[in-house]
Known about the structure:
The protein starts with a helix and ends with a strand. It is 50% helix and 16% strand. By secondary structure, it is an alpha/beta fold. The longest helix has 31 residues. The protein has 4 domains: 66 residues; 109 residues, CATH 2.40.50.140; 336 residues, no CATH class; 256 residues, Ribonuclease Z/Hydroxyacylglutathione hydrolase-like (Metallo-beta-lactamase, Chain A, 4-Layer Sandwich). The protein has 26 helices and 25 strands.
Amino acid sequence: MTLLYLGSAWVSGIWLGSKLRLPLVLFSLAAIPLCLLPFMPSHRRCLLLCCLCLLALLGGALRFQMSLPQFNQGQLQFYNDKGVIELLGVVHTEPEIKGNSTMFQLAASEIRTDAGGSNRVKGKAVVVCNRYSGYHYGDVLKITGVLETPAEVNEFDYKSYLAQQGVHSFMSYPQIEVVTTGKGFKPLLWIYSVRKHLSQNLSRALPEPQASLAQAILLGLRNNIPQCIDEAFSRTGTAHLLAISGLHLSIIIGIVTSASIWLFGRHRYIYIWLALMTIWIYALITAVRPPIVRGAIMGSLFLIAEYLGRPGSAITALAFAAAAMTGLNPQILWNASFQLSFLAMTGLVILAPYFQTFGRGKLSIPANKSRATSSLSRIASFIVDSLAVSLAAIMATCPVIAYHFGIISFVGLPATFFALLSLPGVIVSAGLVSIFGPTIPILSQLLSWIAWCFLTFFVSAVQMYNAIPFSYTSLAQVHIWQVLVYYVLLAAFVMAIKHRKKVAAVVSRAVLRIKALGNQLMQVPTIFMKWVTICLFLGNAIIWTMVATMPDNKLHVSVLDVGQGDAILIQTPNGQNILIDGGPDPETIKLQLGRKIPFWHKKIDLVVLTQPQADHLTGLIEVVQKYEITNILESGISSDTVTYQEWLKTIRSKGIKREIIHAGQEIAIGDNITLKILHPPSAKALETANPIDDNGVVLRLSWNKISFLFTADISKETEWFLITQRKDLQSTVLKVAHHGSKTATSTEFLSVVDPEVAVISVAANNRFGHPHREILDRLATKVGDGRVFLTSEHGTVEFISDGEHLWVKCGK
Length: 812
């Protein structure tokens, strides 16, 4: 208990130091208990403990004050907001890719300002640059740009968040020059390389969102998770299942120990060694990131206390660990990840045993035997332990989640439980997929199918509870006093939980029914029945998925919801896939294609890049890396942007056939379906104010009575050129040019096209004001109300045709 008191005093001192600047003279207060020793000799132990606690309290306050960043010419933040500087440093963390940008931390060593001369500096800065910059951990860079103080982002205190990591500077899209590479910590370089290889294997083998979920669960890489999926996990209180932190590790420890006891019993503490091995393997493959290491340390302390036969001492060990961690970095006391890690492990130590005892006792599950007497008892034991651990973690962390993120989920327990049913299968199958990857194609394909089943169940369970009305509530503000009141009530709940006799009676009656059912089931060989059931379930899921996604002899044209950009997927009756553009975000296009193309089908027969700007091109780079592409068609208009150069590099590395197309060409894609190229002209490019937009590829897809006109980002000048060239423009469906900008879709052009339906690919609340109200009114007048579709309102808009009729299916 002494360590508990001292650890609590130290952490309290850290908090006190953040509120008050205490003078060193206050350390003399620690001598007061010592002065009382001659007068109170019988209380010597208590007085000594008081003295040590006062020293720990004041020491914690002093440690916090010493950790505050200094402000002098030797510190990097001294140069914030002082104009253009030149900075030399090493990439301190593996760059994280999100959307169209890459972010990494740079550990600075030298700085040069406009005033001349260079200074040695210490400190770290967050640097944001282009997605395809190609920097890695350990690269030494020379960066020229403006060093800024981190600002608030959408009411998020980004400055404080970075300060907790020891970062006080920010630089956005600077000029960067690589000086040298491979200067990082060698073992960490190897770990990053292995993690990247495993991540790529998962991305190639699985569709979205299954691939990004597997990367998050196995490798701690959450940047690729689509926003809609991430929000579903947050609203259902299951986000902890994606983060390999203390909250995640506490649940994993419970599941691993329960499963190990089920398989091996408690003999020789095999369950403890397996749990220790599991959490540290997780820590290793996730590059020993601080939140994961903190969770692994706390989890290890709990398991060691269990091994020593003193589980009650685990809370003392946790308090000591918290004191040691805050001693190394006092700022982590305000870090949400640290708080969740500590509280989750505290819940596992204090709450979970009550819930396990309650459940096991009421279900008559033996607690002191290596194996239960029947398969049904073992299954019940596993379910009870998993539910107990999940409930303990949720109850211990719920107010802190509400305080930091403003969300309270009412479906956290059932959503967590059902998602957890597939988590072991996800970890095993996806882990094998990441290891074998493309080395053993047949085995990899089989494992990817199994992983897809588990991951689909995992995300479907969360989405099912997310779809329930009032499954969560958003809170405007949660005060610290409300959090404290919650924990006081929780403590009272723990004290009173033993007296819940009425609930115990209800559970007992349910157990009698379960036992009666179990006696009937025991007549069948249980193990055989279990494996047959699992195999039949997986096989049935795969077969029906294949049946549901087989070609239906219809033409499907989907204007994909990719935000402020263009991406159109054409799926022909004979099973060909044609992709026109890829939108501005790689993760979004992969998610949309994962929903439209069966996960086992890795081929796209034709890719058309209408023009090389980022809102059409960026997503295609990842598509080319993930899918097998047969042919690529382009307009011939090049660009010197980093994104376009990465596009050309990727095509060359894959050995894909690339062809420049022009007006007059025609592609037959079977069943009397044709794709005609109407623009750009074959002679020379149009000379306009916007040559990239106006020389984009214009296509017309036709099948008997139904036709589609895809107009890229052309303007009125190009529209008039097409009219004067007497192109066959009349079409049933018009994909409106340039996201509904007023620079296109003229009255004359609409009269010639004469569409019956119009669709606009556009993002909600975009900064360009697209689509323009004048264009919407013009389209409504031409095609009629209810026949103008916007991806911002309707989601992905899918047109289905048999050549004679047209059906429209909206994603929202």
